[in-house]
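Re: beginner question about structure tokens

> Can someone show what the tokenized structure looks like for a real chain? I only ever see the sequence side.

Sure, here's an example I had lying around. Input first:
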Amino acid sequence: MSAKSVGEKLVALCKEGKNIDAINTLYSDDVVSVEAMAMPGMDQTQKGIDAVRKKNEWWYENHEVHSGDVEGPFPHGEDRFAVVFRYDVTNKPSGNRMKMEEIGLFTLSGGKVAKEEFFYSM
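And the corresponding structure tokens:
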């Protein structure tokens, strides 16, 4: 599948709040995920689909999502695309509410997401 078609499917699933479904259907087993900074108790880089699922599950367990918006995809050639994510969330442990905006850059291999990189400032 092309970057555009994978990106369109990823964006559609994320708009429905089905981020884990996106991982399960669109990601390769050996996917690498790189955050702009390490999450609490995790490395900045996660390797393998199980680690990426765990990171996403941690995020949803630790944040109440009030609203979210996903924009894109923005293809770059046949093997990369970017997506803009905007969220209004409350961090459950601290109680702090915040608005977040991040760019996800996704690289494909064999028609599956092989690498995701996130860019944001806190």
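Each token stands for a local structural state, so reading them left to right follows the chain. The radius of gyration is 14 Å.
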